[in-house]
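In this section we walk through a basic example: taking a raw amino acid sequence and producing a predicted 3D structure, encoded as discrete structure tokens. The instruction is simple. Fold the sequence below.
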Amino acid sequence: METTTALVHFATALAIGLLLGLEREHSTAGQPVRPAGSRTFSLLSLVGAVAAALAPAMVLIVVGAAGLLVIAWYVLSAQISSEPDLGATTEVAAIVAVLLGALAWSHPTWAVPIAVAVVALLAAKRPLHRFATRLVTDDDIADAIRLFVVAFVIFPLLPDRPLGPYGVLNPSRIWLLVIAITLIGWAGYVAVRALGERQGLVLVGFLGGFVSASATTVVLARRTGGNVRHAVLPAVLTASVATLVQLIALTAVVNPAIAVRLLPASAAGAAVLLGEAGWLAWHTRRTGGDSGSERTDTPDAPSAFQRPLSLRVTISLTLVVLILLLTATRAAAALLGARGVLAAAFVGGLADAHSASVAASSLGGTVVPISVALLGVGMALLSNTLIKIVLAAVAGGLRFATRLAVLLVLPAAAVAGGIVLVM
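The resulting token sequence is shown next.
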């Protein structure tokens, strides 16, 4: 290795150690014992780089010596400190500094982003501690374990080839869809738990839309009390924005070409929805249409935000609804051609726009032309919009549903126009 390159690698190792040391020195300020700071971590990382430069075996020796050193640090800290839960984060970080220094010698482009991720993890102590002790429940831990099993144990074992009637059932693709639906629901759930529903009905509507836009519309409509100027209207609109975002994410799993063509239409519809929601929120505050007494943390808060969609329910819905819908849509395409696909998409959208859209998208470019698949997605979105208006009428009254229907005309037209333009 050239001298200039070697010096750059050593400098990278030194910078990594300094970065880790500064964070640790800041985090442990005020403690009776601070075994390592910016200088110590810099030296540890540099020693790791020197060891890697000399011989791979030297790295093992240096890591072993650093291990003995951090054990001594921990014993000393335990004898002096009166805290019952001392922790060993700094000691473990010291070992990581040595390993990152060694990695910086051979692969500095790997070591730097890993070091940044480690520093970010160390700096997130308080929010992580709050999240783990106050926000996460036993059910959440169990669900997370199941999710990891589904994503990292079961998924790699599934065959990636077409099976079943008409050859449309791909176990790997179907399971990937299960993972995608679960992760999207979890993202909204975690955000609500971390930020709280007090941040506003609009936030709750948007995040709840990832779980179920129809269910979110029903729950929010029940909060109007017949007041069509209530602040839940912007929340219902943002739930529809989540529907469009989720549509792109899910169709990208089964047919990226369809997702790319749907992107302009979804973006146009989302822009109109956000514009209407913003105007309504401003107008409500300006005219005093919302008393502000309603809060999202009341006992009748949406049950969809109390826990994400369970894995069992997700699998059941995916296997029963999605597989049957795929088969039914494919059979309709075989028997009735394009008309069968459009009819199946419209009927399926009454229950779930995403499942019907995924079913139609999976056939695009193979069984039916892409233009027909795009029309099928449009039919699913149309029928789902109609069912939202019906549900809003049942839960919030005819006046509320009428106002919502008027507000949904422009977004629907924007989505329809975007689909027609790319066909």
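Looking at the output, two observations stand out. Residues 256-287 form the longest helix (32 residues). Residues 137-422 form one domain. In the next section we compare this with other chains.
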